[in-house]
Amino acid sequence: MNFKECAKEIEKDIIKWRRNLHQIPEIGLDLPQTSDYVQMRLKEMGIEYKTLVNGSAIVALIGEKNQGKTIALRADMDALPIKEETGVLYSSKNGNMHACGHDAHTAMLLGAAKILKDNEHLLKGTVKLLFQPGEEGFAGAKHMIEEGALESPKVDNIVGLHIGAPSKGVPDGKVIVNYGKTMTCLDKFYLKIKGIGAHGAYPELGVDPVTISAQVIGALQCIVSREKGGPEPAIITVGKINGGTAFNIIPEFIEMEGTARFVDQGLREQAAKRIGEISTGIAKAMRGDCEYEYEFGYPPLVNSKEITEKFIKSAQKIVGSENIIEMERPIMGGEDMAFFLQEVPGTFFFLASSEYDSEGNFISSHNPKFNISEDVLHIGTALFVQTVFDFLNM
Predict the structure, then answer these.
(1) How far apart are CA 390 and CA 123, in angstroms?
(2) What is the Cα–Cα distance from 159 to 387, expressed in whole angstroms?
(3) CA pair distance 315, 389, nearest whole angstrom
(4) Same domain, residue pair 87 and 198
């Protein structure tokens, strides 16, 4: 069966679903309209499902339960608190925005659901469809796992995708894969550098937390440049600094927040320790003090080499070998698909779809002008379906 042709036949439906979802973007773990929309489509298809995470997550089943293997397909559904500036007719109606393509992920999985249900009698196992809330910083995958999404029946393998391109210049429709460490952790840290307030004209009477903070920021970069060997990518970024009340007053304290990104768990744990040690050491050496908190967020996303190799064989049937690209290095962004991949062997791939402004500048995700090429949506659906049949029927 040519699943690419099957997906092309329902392309108008997939696009319609995506545009409808695009107009009702919702944030975090509370997606009542989005969840209701997906549930209605599943009911129309005659697909059995249940809800989790207070009704915002959906787990649907297709195939012969408890016979053969079970493969899960995952799509995230949440949006971002961004005001849309695309100008498309189907723009968001509520001030939020699908600026990361999750509307497309959901629509492509609905397309796969339709084709799989129509061919359910040919499946030698079970397909579990995971429609997930809260990817954008709310750990929706973790919540679903805790509520049993990977059980009854137990999932053997899992596959997910992300639309868009990790960088500019990747032609639409290319499939981007990685055999192992694919995306970094998404961690956060907080520092409060404490000094003693004083008049700006008499710094010797105080302890300047601004000066201490400047030393800390520079020193933190040495964790990456001087304490890490090998090719493993790593980033420590201080993204927020706050403190002070006037130009001529040395404040009592400075607060800083930042992010740490690692694909290696050992480096991650080392950095969590060293950020605190370095910051506290510098602060005390300069007569101040430091409060420190480190939040372990999404773990590194690591694909199974075996499952990725199997997926590539399936993808070749849909797009051809010439349209499959292997990533040269991990992406420095985080993804909570990593929680699923900690529990079940699987793979997470990218389906390229790029947007450029009138001056030819690449528009990345999380941008108010972000959009996708809808011409590739049927490809994502076909990749899901081909993978399912190859995994279950091999």
Answers:
(1) 10
(2) 9
(3) 12
(4) no
Cβ contacts of residue 81 below 8 Å, gap of 6+?
A: 27, 95, 96
Could you tell me the pLDDT band of residue 359, with boundaries at 50, 70 and 90?
Answer: confident
Tell me whether strands 48-52 and 57-63 are parallel, antiparallel or unpaired. antiparallel
Instruction: Tell me the C-alpha to C-alpha distance, in Å, between residue 42 and each of 62, 117, 129, 311.
Output: 11, 10, 11, 26
CA dihedral 39, 44, 46, 50 (to 10 degrees): 10
pLDDT tens digits, one per residue of 196-218: 999 999 999 999 999 999 999 99
> Which of 277, 295, 313 lies at the terminal end of a domain, its last residue?
295
| Structural domain containing residue 378 | 3-182+300-393
DSSP-assigned letters across all residues of 129-167: EEEE--TTTS-HHHHHHHTTTTTTTTPSEEEEEEES-SS
Give mean pLDDT, residues 267-289: 97
Answer for the pair 29, 133: CB distance below 8 angstroms, yes or no.
Answer: yes
